Give the backbone structure.
Amino acid sequence: MRFAKLALVVSLLLALVVPFATAQGGGEGLTIGFSQIGSESAWRTAFTDAVRAEAEARGINLLFSDAQQSQENQIAAIRAWLAQGDVDAIILAPVIATGWDDVLEEAQDAGVPVVIVDRNVDSDPSLYVTRVSSDFVHEGRLAAAWLVQATSGNCNVVELYGTVGSAAAEDRHAGFAEVLGLFSGMEIIRSETGDFVRSNGKQVMESFLSSEDPANICAVFAHNDDMAIGAIEAIKEAGLVPAVDILVVSVDAIPDIFDSMDAGETNATVELSPFMGGPAFDAVVAHLNGEELPKQISVGGGLYTSRAAYDADR
Ligand code: GZL
């Protein structure tokens, strides 16, 4: 492997995302609407629980809407809060990137600031205060860098894609494909959406295993751990050994993936912090105090191949 490529791989594995520091705490007495995508994955549920706990700790009156992965439901919830006129701010976790201009303009016209969390919107940044999120492209690059070094740059990969049109899926794919493209022996031979859902991950992996020669599948890259866990079940039911016959790398670092790692059934996961509520509430408070904020506040996460390494970083 040429030195330059190796240097890139190592640099990606060592890169850190330094979160932007805002004033900590505050928000007591505020009423904030939280439009959450749904409960499609264990990470999403952990994210919801963390936001609720943070609001409780700060004395924030949190109005919560679970959109069941429907943008229509998210927009309806935001419009209801605007009509009631009883929210000081809105936190939006957008299911997909497009289609938010109108409702964000309505919120701005109503004087209700919006903070984007997690996935992205393709609307003009003037329509929201800031976005608190991880760097999805970096997550994809990290996963690819680990796979390149684990296979010496020779691997046919099947990809379990997240929700079509979501920034998380689009950007994880982009980062993963960018690094793979540097190595002629690395190729994504199949890619299909499992919508970030565990059962879909199993079904799609079953279809890969029945339509491809399993001996030709070196690894599976799942855009989240839930789909990876579904894929692990499919690999085992096909009589193959996950993490050995077919390497497994994914994103989120949920507790269940470390159970799989302990069992030797998965290889690596990239951490996605569920603790975005604090920075989001801090951004609301800062904005309401008239402070200027950057348009991106990052939460970081590294790649882990063992529970011990993950626990050591807590
Ligand atoms: C990514 C987030 C994704 C998680 C999945 O930030 O939007 O959505 O990786 C979840 O678990 O469904």
